[in-house]
């Protein structure tokens, strides 16, 4: 990570790594950490500093993080400590693990539509003033650049605007954005400018449409894409939801934790609009390949009960223990698929009444085989009201490629062993609470998915070291002798 042939010797990477761990342990900013290194006796002792020693400026912490990210080493320290815990026997390689996710709020203010477009223009104007002054001068002749200065870009307009004026303001800034894009169209070879141009184009494409007269207007919320850009300041942040009522803007962090020793074995950041279980398989396979960890079971909530994930992890030697997704309102009162006998070899499906049909349709994209039972048979069937509530009066069943895994899970989930396994899951909430309440994981310190990932790794590392120290201290406690048995 460092140049060997020129420049002065760097500040010790080991010292900066330890300082970064302590920074996340105490939930301190860079400046607060600099001050702690100067005046906090506990921090000085932990870092091995002299009482009058000032080890580094606060900017060195930012430089260190930048080097980690540029060299793909943001998870290096976490992996080294985890490897040590495994080698010391504190983590068993086949130990049962649990998984859950928490949301991380992005370090951005949610802009209005006018402000969002203005910020897109502002980000383009910055490199133009430095490297393309002639283009900047041409743009200045057509639009008022004072409105896109650093002081004004976050304001819609002075005072409060009524609905009509707000709509007109959006028309004005959209027209300005189109003029800017027209002038920068011919500029080549500037990667930074190119990325920011693409960003502004995306803002306009996702949020702006035109009425019958060709005047720009904001798209209806339902017509906007799901993966919509939230802010040009943090292009990776997304609108997300933890439930129907709990919505947020930012990221999610998935953690896997051992059940017995309670160490975090992996933490995976992702954009806020992704499903909780979307990187579950990746998290387990990564720890298997890097550290040889192969949990016998992985316990999670309903978000981790996906059939494809079950099949993929089963191939890796890990059984997923999770509730299956609740059926929707339209199908919850009808016979489940488990009551139908599926002959995979001959591609036949038999209903509870004994009627057998062949595959009717094959969805190549979703890889689902659809079976339509004949109306003539369903119409006279005495079980019809219990089997289907379809308007066309017949039962239709879709069989996916993971039907076998889902049916096996359905059977297992009715056993006492499943109930015992699920009791192990809830303790992971305490680990998430510890990360959020004491180590700053509720809000992102930095902007961008990679930087948020770095924050996740160091916060999880601080928690693992705390757990490690606690286990070591428990070994030092004197054992209380058992009271002697007295004969009566």
Total DSSP E strands: 14
Would you tell me the structural class of the helices and strands? Answer: alpha+beta
Q: Averaged pLDDT, please?
A: 90
* Portion in helices: 40-55%
Question: In this structure, how is the largest beta sheet organized?
Answer: 6 strands, mixed
The CATH superfamily of the largest domain appears as Ribonuclease H-like superfamily/Ribonuclease H
Overall geometric form: flat
Low-confidence segments, ≥5 residues, pLDDT <50? none
| Amino- and carboxy-terminal Cα gap | 73 Å
Number of helices: 17
What do we call the CATH topology of the largest domain?
A: Nucleotidyltransferase, domain 5
By CATH, the architecture of the largest domain is named 2-Layer Sandwich
Instruction: Tell me the name of the CATH class of the largest domain.
Output: Alpha Beta
How many domains? The number is 4
Radius of gyration: 29 Å
Percentage of β-strand residues:
5-15%
Biased composition (Basic and acidic residues): 214-225
Region (Disordered): 211-242
Domain Transposase DDE: 350-467
InterPro entries: IS1182_transpos, Tnp_DDE_dom, Transposase_InsH_N
């Amino acid at each position: 990570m460092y140049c060997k042939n020129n420049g002065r010797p760097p500040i010790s990477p080991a010292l900066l790594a330890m300082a970064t761990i302590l920074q996340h342990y105490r939930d301190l900013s860079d400046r607060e950490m600099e001050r702690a290194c100067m005046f906090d006796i506990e921090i000085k002792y932990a870092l091995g500093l002299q009482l009058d020693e000032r080890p580094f400026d606060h900017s060195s912490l930012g430089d260190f993080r930048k080097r980690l990210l540029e060299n793909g080493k943001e998870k290096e320290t976490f992996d080294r400590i985890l490897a040590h815990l495994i080698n010391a026997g504190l983590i068993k390689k086949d130990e049962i693990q649990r998984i859950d996710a928490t949301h991380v709020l992005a370090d951005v203010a949610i802009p209005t539509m006018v402000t969002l477009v203005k910020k897109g223009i502002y980000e383009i104007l910055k490199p133009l003033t430095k490297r393309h002054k002639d283009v900047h001068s041409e743009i200045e002749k057509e639009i008022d650049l004072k409105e896109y200065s650093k002081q004004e870009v976050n304001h819609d307009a002075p005072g409060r605007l009524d609905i009509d004026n707000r709509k007109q303001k959006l028309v004005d800034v959209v027209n300005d954005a189109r003029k800017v894009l027209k002038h920068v169209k011919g500029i080549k070879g500037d990667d930074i400018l190119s990325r920011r141009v693409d960003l502004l184009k995306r803002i306009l494409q996702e949020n702006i449409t035109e009425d019958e007269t060709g005047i720009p207007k904001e798209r209806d919320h339902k017509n906007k894409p799901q993966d919509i850009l939230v802010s040009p300041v943090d292009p990776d942040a997304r609108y997300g939801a933890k439930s129907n009522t709990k919505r947020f803007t930012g990221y999610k962090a998935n953690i896997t934790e051992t059940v017995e020793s309670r160490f975090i074995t992996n933490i995976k950041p992702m954009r806020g609009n992704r499903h909780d279980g979307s990187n579950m398989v990746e998290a387990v396979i990564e720890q298997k390949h890097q550290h040889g960890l192969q949990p016998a079971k992985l316990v999670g909530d309903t978000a981790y009960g996906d059939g494809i994930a079950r099949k993929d992890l089963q191939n890796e030697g890990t059984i997923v223990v999770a509730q299956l997704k609740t059926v929707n309102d339209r199908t919850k009162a009808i016979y489940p698929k488990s009551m139908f006998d599926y002959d995979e070899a001959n591609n036949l499906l038999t209903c509870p009444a004994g009627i057998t049909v062949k595959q009717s349709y094959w969805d190549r994209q979703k890889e689902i085989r659809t079976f339509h039972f004949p109306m003539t048979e369903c119409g006279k069937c005495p079980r019809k009201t219990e089997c289907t509530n379809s308007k066309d009066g017949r039962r239709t069943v879709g069989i996916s490629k993971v039907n076998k895994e889902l049916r096996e899970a359905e059977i297992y989930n009715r056993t006492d062993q499943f109930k015992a396994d699920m009791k192990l899951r809830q303790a992971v909430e305490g680990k998430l609470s510890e990360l959020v309440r004491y180590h700053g994981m509720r809000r992102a310190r930095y902007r961008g998915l990679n930087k948020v990932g770095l924050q996740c790794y160091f916060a999880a590392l601080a928690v693992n070291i705390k757990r490690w120290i606690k286990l070591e201290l428990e070994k030092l406690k004197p054992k209380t002798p058992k009271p002697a048995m007295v004969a009566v």
